[in-house]
Design a protein that fits this description.
The protein has 585 residues and is α+β, with helices and mostly antiparallel strands. The protein folds into three domains: 12-103, OB fold (Dihydrolipoamide Acetyltransferase, E2P) (Beta Barrel); 137-272 and 424-549, BirA Bifunctional Protein, domain 2 (2-Layer Sandwich), CATH 3.30.930; 291-413, 2-Layer Sandwich (Gyrase A, domain 2), CATH 3.30.1360.30. It is 29% helix and 24% strand. It has 16 helices and 22 strands. The strands form five sheets. It has an eight-stranded mixed β-sheet, with helices on both faces. It has a five-stranded mixed barrel with strand order 1-2-3-5-4. The two termini are 57 Å apart. The structure holds aspartic acid. Aspartic acid is lined by residues 173, 195, 197, 233, 483-485, 528-530.
Length: 585
């Protein structure tokens, strides 16, 4: 046995016990005749003491220990003279009597402590060392606990976890597929699942009734902070359900996770916001509801024929930033630069300060008199000291999205996006389709298997853009943490959907024949949803990026810098796969 105790478990009550510990040397400190070593393992840190006066040879050996050496130590638990309140083992130390070096270590490329000196790149390259750090390890422990809670919760409700294959044909979810060449079928490719969408629907046709799976999904998209090419979903599907049943079930699960893993209880049902309302009030289908600053439409007040920019705009909207009238010219210029950044793309920013005496001073004073500016103040419900920020544009949807970015920025600046506060809601009634400029056709906003809302089905032929989907997203703190829909289970309606999406009957048959055929053999009404596990964990852990809750994540270019993947393969492999490369330099 290498150890009798871990580095996290000894307390004052253990004083006097003989123990053996094993772990990594975090630090060695020599103070006069004493040498102190912080010994670390997954469970914590314990201080070891070596005394030159009582055991010179042992102390000399301890002085030679380097960071990250793996050692085994025997000794006696002793009450510490100066206690360390910051760690659970801080009341005790081990007076070492025997030291055994199990393995040496080179000097690590960064310090493996909570406050490391390692930058992002180096920590990713040596991720196995980064994972020794408590902060990173804690995220993975939380992830583990979340998976256990999910499995127990769903299993108790009769859900079965069923594994679906990783090598499949393409399932369109709006992203590109990662493909895998088949050696045994030259010239043919598998696709890695963007989600098990069609397979879980087939499980419903098979009568499984309630399915879930904690499953890897793959999407070849440009990466952002909250995206990874491979990510994990809690994927679920149920038969004989309406949207209400699904919302109840998974709201219940969300509340359970918050309660057990964060100690947060919600006494009210989550808010539900139809998509159109979310866009109108917050310019986003995933509004951050931790704070207000709702949009106010100002066309009626500001279209006076005196300021052409507003007169010609399709949309004029404002937000009221409380207490920000004190913003300096420099701060306002920064905000203007912020909205003009190419990622946001606004042409300019109009502002109006409500002064202490109630008068309004704006950047467009020469176009509007005080009467109009007072109307503006009234409509914005602004008080003395507040700052009104206004954007306009000739595309209402685009301008709302720009205003949304500004709202989030102001929320951030005002400290309203508190990571320990959680605002959850369901966004419902999404449009069924959205127009793609790139593809020059209607695309499914959710996916092609989503059922239209019953009351809108009659519009499918005449006005598809007006059809709403029986789809729902769960949003937490401005992040989409899950989404799903009631599915089409009628082969004719599914065929019609493919037709609207621009598939010829042959193409639809070729790609989705398996599903439409299955629907001919008694498909139950069904629906489901998928939660993004990585996003849930990162929200619970208060992380800025999902990378920090993934053991071996990819960087922003989709690379695993530790494994140096992706990488070239040798000619022999290419030949076996009958692949000729045509890489342009
Ligand atoms: N397959 C969908 C997704 O990955 C979720 C669902 O509709 O269940 O977003």
């Amino acid at each position: 046995m290498y150890r009798t105790k871990t580095c996290g478990e000894l307390r004052l009550t253990n004083a006097g016990e003989s123990v053996t510990l094993a772990g990594w040397v975090q630090r060695v400190r020599k103070m006069g005749a004493m040498t102190f070593v912080d010994l670390r393992d997954r469970y914590g840190i314990t201080q070891l003491v070596f005394n030159e006066e009582t055991n010179a040879e042992l102390c000399a050996a301890a002085n030679k220990l380097g960071r990250e050496f793996v050692i085994q130590v025997e000794g006696t638990v002793n009450e510490r003279y100066s206690k360390n309140k910051n760690i659970p083992t801080g009341d005790i130390e081990i007076i070492a009597s025997k030291l055994n070096i199990l393995n040496e270590s080179e000097i690590p490329p960064f310090t493996i402590e909570d406050n490391t000196d390692g930058g992002d790149d180096i920590r990713m390259k040596y991720r196995y060392l980064d994972l020794r750090r408590t902060a990173v390890r804690k995220n993975l422990e939380l992830r583990h606990r979340m998976c256990i809670e999910v499995r127990n919760y769903l299993s108790n409700l009769g859900f079965l976890e069923v594994e679906t294959p990783m090598l499949i044909g393409s399932t369109p979810e709006g992203a590109r597929d990662f493909v895998v060449p088949s050696r045994m079928n030259p010239g043919q490719f598998y696709a890695l699942p963007q989600s098990p969408q069609t397979l879980k629907q087939l499980l419903m046709v098979s009568g499984f009734d309630r399915y879930f799976q904690i499953v890897k999904c793959f999407r070849d998209e440009d990466l952002r902070a909250d995206r990874q090419p491979e990510f994990t979903q809690i994927d679920c599907e149920m038969s004989f359900v309406t949207q209400e049943d699904i919302i109840q079930t998974f709201e219940g699960m969300a509340k359970h996770l918050f309660k057990t893993l964060r100690g947060v209880e919600f006494d009210q049902p989550f808010l539900r916001l139809p998509w159109a309302e979310a866009m109108r009030r917050f310019g986003s289908d995933k509004p951050d509801m931790r704070f207000g600053m709702e949009f106010v439409e100002l066309d009626d007040i500001l279209k006076t024929g005196s300021f052409p920019v507003f007169d010609n705009a399709a949309y004029i909207g404002g937000i009221c930033a409380p207490g920000c009238a004190v913003y300096t010219r420099k701060q306002l210029d920064q905000l203007t630069d912020f909205v003009k950044r190419p990622q946001i793309g606004a042409k300019g920013l109009v502002y109006a300060r409500v002064q202490d005496d109630g008068t309004v001073k704006s950047s467009v004073d020469k176009f509007y008199d005080q009467t109009i500016l007072q109307q503006l103040k009234e409509k914005m419900q602004a008080n003395p000291g507040d700052l009104i920020l206004i954007l306009s544009g000739d595309d209402a949807m685009k301008t709302r999205k720009q205003l949304c970015e500004l709202r989030l920025e102001m929320g951030e600046r005002l400290g309203l996006r508190d990571k320990n506060k959680f605002a959850l809601l369901w966004v419902t009634e999404f449009p069924m389709f959205e127009w793609s400029d790139e593809e020059q056709r209607l695309m499914a906003m959710h996916h092609p298997f989503t059922h239209p809302m019953d009351e809108d089905i009659h519009l499918l032929d005449t006005d598809p853009a007006a059809v709403r989907a029986d789809a729902y997203d769960m949003v937490c703190n401005g992040v989409e943490v899950g989404g799903g829909s009631i599915r089409i289970h009628d082969p004719q309606l599914q065929e019609k959907m493919f037709e609207i999406l621009g598939f010829t009957p042959e193409k639809a048959q070729e790609q989705f024949g398996f599903l439409m055929n299955a629907f001919k053999y008694g498909a139950p009404p069904h629906g489901g949803l998928a939660y993004g596990l990585d996003r849930w964990v990162s929200i619970f852990a208060g992380l800025d990026s999902i990378r920090d809750c993934i053991a071996f994540p990819k960087n922003n270019s989709g690379r695993d810098v530790m494994l140096d993947a992706p990488s070239a393969i040798d000619q022999k492999q290419l030949d076996e796969l009958c692949l000729n490369l045509n890489v342009k330099e």
